[in-house]
Amino acid sequence: MKHKVLTKFLLFGALCTILLSLTGCPQKKTIENIKLEDIKIVFDEEKMACWKDEGDKWNKITSGTAVPEGTKLRFYSRKLPDHQIPDKWTFGNKTITAALQADITVDKSYADKEKTINVAYTLRNVIKLKIVFDIAKLKVEKKEGNTFTTINNGEMIDERVIVRFSAINIPSDKIVYGWTLNGTPANFYKYNTTIKKVIISKDYADLTNTMNIDYNLKTPEQITINYDNSKMYCDYYDSSTASWTRINPGETFPEGKKVWFNLKEVEEGKVPVWTINGKTEKSDFFEYVSYFLDIDKIGSGKYVQVGLSYRGGKTFTVKFDSSKIKCTKEKDGSTITSGTQLIEGTEINFKTTDGTNVKWIIGNYIYNERNSIDYIVFEADADADIIEVSYE
């Protein structure tokens, strides 16, 4: 009962960094806690969006939100006039040159007397950038309407055009390991063989308005996968064959791949808590957790050790339009009415009353088109103790 093909709609939240200062005299050092001041961030939400760095994810914030000093923020421009692009961004009394994306670390010195940082940008006309790449290693395409067309090495492309980079002719014993722009590391995920959507701008170019895109190759490390197969199983989805491959305990698997650890048995009221190499791994789904085999995260030991424990289940109210959706309990086929309270781990099924195929929306996720969907009650899908189910 795995819904592994889905589109995630939530984007990401925030953690502040806590700073400590060492002070003292030659005979003795003491640790002094520094109180971080909250700074209000004010901006025009029609012209930009702001995201706050939480460490392992980003969370969108609204204008007027107060954040502690040291918080990393990322701004994206939006609803730009045709053929124009940001030139300079101002953060209070701080000015930086950036186009579509501007990053800052909140500093109280940027703020006014009211401890507010006002954010704005100025505009300029777009320019053409030269796209340079090795045609033996890369296929580069630009978006025109709803399709992508191949471009040539050295072609001139306007800023704000969407391009796609695809690594080609990769030797069978190698993997992509890091992308570069003009010889410096690019902010693309290092294992990706395709960079699907890049809105080009001077942010990516050198002083000659050239974007020279390339990637590095490496022989993948083999990672040992350790887990208790009485509680779970591990598998990997091979997109080239559209099939799942089982990975047994103690087997090795190459870095750069995503693997899945799955419950063997779902029990009402028992919620899985996953750990990998001693660290809790959050999952947005009840019955499995996915894990990317990133050697830089795994370390020189070259293994993952997966643990599984449980916490007690919480109760949530399940709501849906009963004129459009029928809900039954998997265990006994009994009917579940809208507004019923169910404990986590309860397996249920939703089905359209007229049998039509639809895209299901549960919490913040949308699932592939079908006329019914199996579901396990889980806190990650709840908002204020309510799990809303609908379709489109």
Taken as a percent bin, the fraction of beta residues is: over 45%
How many helices? The count is 1
The global form is globular
How many DSSP-defined strands? 39
Order of neighbouring strands in the sheet with most strands: 1-37-36-39-31-34
End-to-end distance: 22 Å
Q: How big is the Rg? A: 25 Å
Largest sheet: 6 strands, mixed
Fraction of helical residues: under 10%
Instruction: Give the low-pLDDT segments.
Output: 3-32
Mean pLDDT: 91
Structural class: mainly beta
What is the domain tally? 4
Keywords: Signal
Signal peptide: 1-21
What's this entry about, in short?
This protein is mostly beta strands and 392 residues long.
What brief labels describe this structure?
392 residues, mainly beta, 4 domains, 6-stranded mixed beta sheet, 5-stranded mixed beta sheet, 1 helix, 54% strand, globular, disordered N terminus
Structure description:
Residues 1-21 form the signal peptide. It is a single chain. With 392 residues, this protein is an all-beta fold. The chain folds into four domains: 9-124, no CATH class; 128-218, no CATH class; 222-312, no CATH class; 315-391. The chain contains one helix and 39 strands. The chain has a six-stranded mixed beta sheet, with no helix packed on it. The radius of gyration is 25 Å and the shape is globular.
Give the secondary structure arrangement, pairings included:
Layout: E1 6-8, E2 20-25, E3 28-33, E4 38-42, E5 48-53, E6 58-61, E7 65-68, E8 72-77, E9 84-91, E10 94-97, E11 101-105, E12 116-125, E13 128-132, E14 138-144, E15 147-150, E16 155-158, E17 162-167, E18 175-181, E19 184-185, E20 194-199, E21 210-218, E22 222-226, E23 232-238, E24 243-247, E25 252-254, E26 258-263, E27 270-276, E28 279-281, E29 288-292, H1 295-298, E30 303-312, E31 315-319, E32 325-329, E33 335-336, E34 340-343, E35 347-352, E36 358-362, E37 365-370, E38 372-376, E39 386-391
Parallel strand pairs: 4-12, 13-21, 22-30, 31-39
Antiparallel strand pairs: 1-37, 2-3, 4-7, 5-6, 5-8, 8-11, 9-10, 9-12, 13-16, 14-15, 14-17, 17-20, 18-19, 18-21, 22-25, 23-24, 23-26, 26-29, 27-28, 27-30, 31-34, 32-33, 32-35, 35-38, 36-37, 36-39
Keywords: Signal
Signal peptide: 1-21
